[in-house]
């Protein structure tokens, strides 16, 4: 049997959650667990009701996205983890493409590209992510972290044991907990493999945290980069010849 992939959907008062859940249930990959972690929502909960027979739904006290993801990682039954924000959507072949690649290449982590969609699900910017060489791109990915964050967290699929090696999401970063984790993965020798396909639709809208909390996000990014980039530079100098 193919390995099970758990799709963790952190949820907090989000009207778009039915679209996210349906896109997870519509995956062509046959061995899927859809785990919705309600982070203490006070509204929009009724939108999950029609899906309860097809998903695993758990509720916890509000603590932020990182805590919801970490709880999902702790209780999930999958050997691999994917993360889907409750306002985004997976394309139907998303998990299949990444699992085919990862199993064939013995990869622990893969990520992909994405289109930007608006509040009405319409694509308005295509191929938003940085693109890398289609093969043997692990070194390029490492190098890119010297100047930017090239990884959209919802494009990730990771083996569950990666979180034992690199740790889980840091709740101290409310909006950039994924960026912090990518550095820890890289510095623990976990290569992040890029797949040059668009596999998710990432939503941009006025109610999103990305839109509403830019000053806090910029502060978190600065804190992460000032800490990790000198360490990454030393790591790359030491392992300059890795493939």
From TrEMBL:
It comes from the Bacteria. Keywords: Transferase. Signal peptide: none annotated. InterPro entries: Glyco_trans_2-like, Nucleotide-diphossugar_trans. SUPFAM superfamilies: Nucleotide-diphospho-sugar transferases (SSF53448). GO terms for molecular function: transferase activity. Residues 6-122 form the Glycosyltransferase 2-like domain. It holds the Pfam family Glycos_transf_2. Gene3D superfamilies: Spore Coat Polysaccharide Biosynthesis Protein SpsA, Chain A (3.90.550.10). Belongs to the glycosyltransferase 2 family. PANTHER family: GLYCOSYLTRANSFERASE, UDP-GLCNAC:BETAGAL BETA-1,3-N-ACETYLGLUCOSAMINYLTRANSFERASE-LIKE PROTEIN 1. This is Glycosyl transferase.
